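Q: Predict the bound structure with KG4.
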Amino acid sequence: MSEHIDILAIESSCDETAAAVVRDGREILSNEIYTQIAMHTVYGGVVPELASRKHIEKINFVIQKALEDAGKTLEDIDAVAVTCGPGLVGALLVGVAEAKAIAWAAKKPLIGVHHIEGHISANYIEHPDLKPPYLGLIVSGGHTHLVIVKDWAEFEILGRTVDDAAGEAFDKVARAIGLGYPGGPKIDKIAKEGNPDAITFPKAKVNGSEYDFSFSGIKSAVLNYLNHAEMMHETVNPADLAASFQKAVVDVLCEHTVRAAKAHNITNVAMAGGVSANSALRAGMEKACKDAGLNLSVPSPIYCTDNAAMIGVAAFHEFEKGYRSGWDLNAVPNLKLGEHL
Ligand code: KG4
Ligand code: ZN
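A: Predicted complex:
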């Protein structure tokens, strides 16, 4: 019997069908991702029903490929992990049902993983020395959370968005300036040609709350700016607008993170989630942390957006702590961070 713990992980919470085999929570033996982006682009965003159907169509192939790439069979696997929430319920259900069937048939333990715990755990892949306690900023299409990772698989939430997630704001602003879906990478690209100080947008802060975020105000400010320009027959430079919007988002994310780290005497910071692939955010957070004497970890872009490797890494720590899911594991679209099913 191998002295390693090899986990087969499955992720299907949104528009990526993914499977990976992860060794000892650090080594990625395979990482297979089938992205549905092209299909959803036609509709300008993710269509939940279509996402579920596509997951069903692709999931067996993706899992098979992940096992093959890792040179493993189900016999060699020590546990099966799956994202059980939060996310689109129909999409989650495909992964959960599949993981249950595989684990049951192969007589392996089953581990349900929280999607955000997966995102933050992506940092351990390339920063194997990172360990709790540290401060985590998770910015994705569905979530914006500032948390203290108190211990493996244990979290204290300091702040979160009170309305849109950061990625959602990127996607909506991109649509408004005609860049299409998904907006984040497109804004990132076009903003490189623009002046971030061209337009001043409001900061995405929440009055009376130290660490919460609000991104719907800044999104509305961008829409108002565009409407006003149209009424006045003024031309808008999309690159300046993208760069200015991006700066407003990056500034507030950096400010909150550094302030929280100082207030809680934490020196290690980790960023995660699709928006942490953003080049301006990576550069801005790098500088803000350096200036404040903080160490920053960020995953490579491939581990920032949805993937199953991060789920396998999170599952390893759950496994080590003795967490196992029952055969009644269900998809929970609004699963709370730190809740173990
Ligand atoms: O983590 P993720 O793949 O899925 C969720 O868990 O939501 O994040 C997807 C989000 C989308 O909103 C996408 O526009 C955004 O991440 N994103 C980016 C970049 N790459 C992806 N946002 C800004 N800049 C990027 N380079
Ligand atoms: Zn995600």
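A: Residues 115, 119, 140, 273, 306 surround zinc ion (ligand 2) (CB under 6 Å).
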